[in-house]
Write a structure and sequence with these properties.
By secondary structure, this protein is mainly alpha-helical.
């Protein structure tokens, strides 16, 4: 994206959640161990995600945004929908409230969130074909629940700016859709991309 910005002085920052900091390391340890994951209370896991996200926003996202930088994050707090039971609005609202509480003054609604929407069975098949290793949160039934919850989250929280991309198509088609949406979003913020 940076190469396509007309104003080359604008910094584009790439980040990822969970982070590699204290809470992120604890999350990754839990997800990598089937027995540890099974013993972990789902609420406790979501609390770790919230704390990791707060630290990430405080140290990286918010400071860069205040400097006028563009921040692109691989996963963000919208991923909290994992913790809600399928179609459970009460769980969803509780998770949002918990995240907002932990974030305090560092809560940020992104300008655009891309959800690469794909049937979980196809996602697993593609992942296996590429040699990807799956963690304990990436099971077909769990992915169906999360997919449904993203739709519910989108309806309940339009300010989250979720944009669903049909990821069953080719990589080139998916990227073209994402690029178009990024161009619109950046233009609305006063940034222009070179054609």
């Amino acid at each position: 994206m940076r190469a396509k910005l007309k104003d080359k002085s604008v910094e584009v920052v790439a980040t990822k959640q969970p982070t590699t900091d204290h809470f992120g390391k604890r999350i990754r340890t839990i997800l990598a161990d089937k027995e540890f994951f099974a013993k972990t209370d789902p609420f406790d896991l979501q609390e770790l995600f919230s704390k990791d996200s707060r630290a990430h926003c405080e140290r990286e996202v918010v400071p860069h945004l205040k400097r006028g930088h563009i921040v692109c994050t691989d996963r963000f707090r919208e991923s909290m929908v994992y913790g809600a039971d399928r179609h459970n609005l009460i769980d969803l609202h509780m998770l949002v409230e918990m995240n907002q509480m932990y974030h305090n003054g560092f809560w940020v609604w992104p300008d655009k969130v891309f959800i690469l929407d794909l049937l979980p069975e196809l996602a697993i098949e593609r992942g296996r074909a590429s040699g990807r290793q799956f963690d304990e949160m990436e099971k077909v039934d769990t992915l169906h629940r999360v997919r449904d919850n993203f739709q519910m989250f989108h309806k309940e929280y339009p300010m989250a700016n979720l944009h669903f991309i049909d990821a069953s198509r080719s990589l080139e088609e998916v990227f073209a859709d994402i690029r178009k949406e990024i161009e619109v979003t950046l233009k609305a913020k006063g940034f222009e991309l070179e054609i």
